[in-house]
Amino acid sequence: MKTYTIASSVAERISTVNIQSRLLNNHPYTVKSKLLVLVPEEAFVSKFSIFIDGSEYVGKLVAKKERKATPNNETETQINVEVKFSETNTERGINIFETDIKLEAGAETTLSLTYNELLERRLGLYTQKIFVYPGQVVDTLAVSAAVMEHQGFEAFSYSVPNSDKSVSLSATLDPTVNSVLYQPTKIQQSIVSSKGINGQLVIEYDLKHEKDAGNNVIVEGYYFVHCFTPSGLKTMDKNILFVIDDSGSMDGTKIQQVRESMLSILDNLNSNDYCNIITFSSLVETWLSTPALASSKNIAKAKTFVNDNLYASGGTNINDALIEAIQSLKSSSVNVKRAQIIFFLTDGQPSSGITDTKRIRKNVMEENKGFAAIYCLGFGFDSDHNFLENLANENNGFSRQIYEDEDATEQLVDIYNEIKDPLLLDVKVNYDSKYVESTTNNKFHQYFNGTEIVVAGKVKKSGVLPADTVVVHGISKDGNLKMTSKSVTIRPVDENSSTKKLQDIKKIKQLIGKYFTYNSTESEKAQKDAIELAIENNFITKFTSFVLQAKSP
To answer: Domain VIT spans what residues (predicted)?
Structure first.
């Protein structure tokens, strides 16, 4: 490999990352080469091309069902391209974009791949991870990254691959722009490993946030984005129920790490919170019939329950555990102005009681009826990720992977900390239909400290969205809340608008979520709409893929 370059730009939470690598076959014979590019699992690959001997082959996006096993004309090529999920503990949260090619003796090829990602705010920070993986020491390696955010930076830091040191950047001449350049020499690459650099360039930043909803609405032509991150709100109380899998497959290190994380989490409950604990294997065991105040006395009792009961054995009765959890929360006498949360962890698939995952989802939805948000954690790669993701989506939560590694305890505690401090309930962002044609999801069950609500949409008239027609409603600790936007930023139309791209990314993700529903008609429509939007943006998704074909002269 002669060169390996990555150029990244972030504009209003949307990253555009281009990776290029140039290879030369110095052998006197043809060689087969497998090129690997690592991209974040939440990103969408949007452009792909290969130059071979002066000819450019570009990725044409098609629905997967339309992809043919062989080329249908002379311009298509047999280059194999696929995206697969990496099942390794050392490379977390990635997809591998894999390409097989043949290189004749003396031939040269250049691969170019571009992806887009929506950066989410978690624990008070936006995080971008750029995977640097050339697979060998390269003559020229360079990574450049620029971040542009109109709100201005509150904090900005980065760390380079194969280093634990973080570098903080202070304010620049332009308070809305920061940049990073990483260019290790061949000697510096070889010091890391005989195979060169293998790590991540990680950028973390936060922005200036105001209490009112203003200054976070941007309109570009017919598209807008509204980012809502108010400050100064009081933390609301919560009722939280921990549902922990202690089946036989959790034996060993996993159950020990879960026990340690639970003891740490119990110590960090807010003083006015109410909590309960359910453990389940083939049978379900409950600490109390109804949640108890997180007093020092009750926390000590809860820790005793964890130490005495978290031992692995038996099957996995997910259905009964979740139904019991919902019923326990509903039985609490303190439910007014409280976030209702179920923190659910499992490492496997249902093997006891009701084992059909669709039936379990149906039972949980019917029992829950939107009462509690269910946050699902899959421990290791044996958990049913699709089931947990659908279960969380249907019950106003999210699903996360816990990787089997020495830091699993820290992973669990960090995810709890994301939902530790609820600030608002039943949030709805309203837009006047006189001005707005459509939006992404604008209703949110709970809003937590350190996160962000993002709504994107389309306006009826280019560049027109009056600030006083953008209103956020919700329930805070002090009662009903109403925030009207104070201003809207109008920008000129940009052909590569990040605003439209943000809207389309959010829409595609929501359509993919809708696809996994019980209503087959709704699923089919969601799939059709997702494919159309993906093809419009040239995004690889669950339903689309690339066919490489020669670029027309």
So the answer is: 1-117
* Candidate CATH numbers 1.10.3470, 2.60.40, 1.25.40, 1.20.1530; the one for domain 3-208+541-550: 2.60.40
Sequence ranges of the chain with CATH classification 3.40.50.410? 237-420
Per-residue pLDDT tens listing for the chain (553 residues): 789 999 999 998 999 999 999 988 888 888 887 778 889 989 999 998 888 777 788 888 888 776 554 444 444 444 444 444 344 434 678 888 877 777 788 888 889 999 999 999 999 999 999 999 998 999 999 999 999 998 889 999 999 998 888 888 776 668 899 999 999 999 999 999 999 999 999 999 999 886 554 458 999 999 999 999 988 899 999 999 999 999 999 999 999 999 999 999 999 999 999 999 999 999 999 999 999 999 999 999 999 999 999 999 999 999 999 999 999 999 998 888 899 999 999 998 899 999 999 999 999 999 999 999 999 999 988 888 889 999 999 999 999 999 989 999 999 999 999 999 999 999 999 999 999 999 999 999 999 999 999 999 999 999 999 999 999 999 999 999 999 998 898 988 877 778 999 999 999 999 988 887 766 678 889 999 999 999 999 998 888 888 777 765 5
| Residue 198 tokens, joined | 């293998």
- Pair of tokens at residue 343: 């923190």
Amino acid at 357: T
| 467-470-476-480 Cα dihedral, nearest 10 degrees | 100
Looking at domain 237-420, which CATH architecture does it have?
A: 3-Layer(aba) Sandwich (3.40)
Residues in the chain: 553
